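Exercise 3.2. Students should predict the tertiary structure of the chain below and write it as structure tokens, then compare their answer with the key that follows.

Predict this chain's 3D structure.
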Amino acid sequence: MKAKMIVIGNAPLVMGFKLAGLEDTVQVEEKNFQQKLEETLANPEYGIIITSEVLLNKIDWRLKKKLDNIAYPVIVPMPDHTGKSSEGDEIRNLIKRALGFDLGAKK
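Answer key:
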């Protein structure tokens, strides 16, 4: 089965991906973000969840701990419109966790 990609986030994030052609998007407000994220995590058809880094940083600590311990689906936090990311090498770390080794490691 092929895994699908979904975007969960605020209007600018969702609209940007819709304009790029991604059909599976969910526009949320901060108050219902965690609920939508948990619903999406429970849906096995999604292998990649792209979401707002700002919203992701505001979720309950228990869900953060759960996300830190899973390799699938892959959660990809996107920085907001300022372009600043507090996670730095987050995508590299996600790939390392999913694959079990670091693709960018120097030999």
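Discussion points: The mean pLDDT is 81. The longest strand covers residues 46-52.
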